[in-house]
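Hey team,

Filing this mostly as a record. A colleague (T.K.) asked me to run one chain through the structure pipeline before their review meeting, and I want the input and output archived in the tracker in case anyone asks later how it was produced. No errors, nothing strange. Just documentation.

Input sequence:
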Amino acid sequence: MNRNPPFDISPFRELYPFKSNYLDIDGLQYHYLDEGEGEPVLMLHGNPTWSFYYRALVQGLSPSMRCIVPDHMGCGLSDRPGAKDYGFHLEDRANDLQCLLDHLALSEKVSLIVHDWGGMIGMVWALRNLEKIRRIVILNTAGFFPPAAKGLPLRLWLIRHLRFFAVPAVLFGNVFARAALVMAPRKRLAPDVKAALVAPYNSMHNRLATLKFVQDIPVHPKDPSYATVKSVDENLHRLSSVPMLIGWGKHDFVFDLDYYNEWRRRFPIVPAHLLEKAGHYLLEDEPDKVLELVREFFETT
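Output structure:
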């Protein structure tokens, strides 16, 4: 067990009443939830969220399913490696996930729920483990390069390209996680929820992953994660035989309707639900609605 968690979880136990589990990966502690019994469902968060983001789905599904929710390295309750100790690239994230699934040695096929950058991590793993995938739930994410020659949103572009802006803004000012509290949800978050969402990123060192996630977004062929994203983009069609559900917060400032439409173009017969009252953090805006959609999807596939 991680003896030195990166932040004090105790103020948030009412919201996050789950047992912590840890897997040692090359000397680093990889935190994950493992709640309930039954058919396994794997939930992958993005940036700058953590396993806390999936709390409503874990509480709603764990009475009948086994909910497995990791915190990516540098996020949530996982360890905080420095840049010299960890790669912080898409391949590193996918390899961590593979280590977790190898460790759990699940005998059943896995249902996958993905959001934000967790979508690309999940698609890498899914395409390498097609025989192990039962279903996929897509929530405001991408499995391809930006559609229709879209560029990065300005905020991401600044962090991705301007080191003199990104390092002080993200590491010192925590601008990425704090701005998400206002821009990502459609509704005003309760104070304790807001505090919990940013709690893991409470110091300059603890914010490194939020910076590295953005810097790892591939733009040019020479970028470290470009080839991996290109492979996912070109092979996503191989998931056509896997039952899929798309749930989408309409008012997303990054994964906007162009991304939603691209998913629908690639998977035209997949059920898709556009949530009119939700933004990027659709599990904060419409948790009950998303849970209802996921339950119905699981029960009928």
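Quick notes for T.K.: The radius of gyration is 18 Å. The mean pLDDT is 92.
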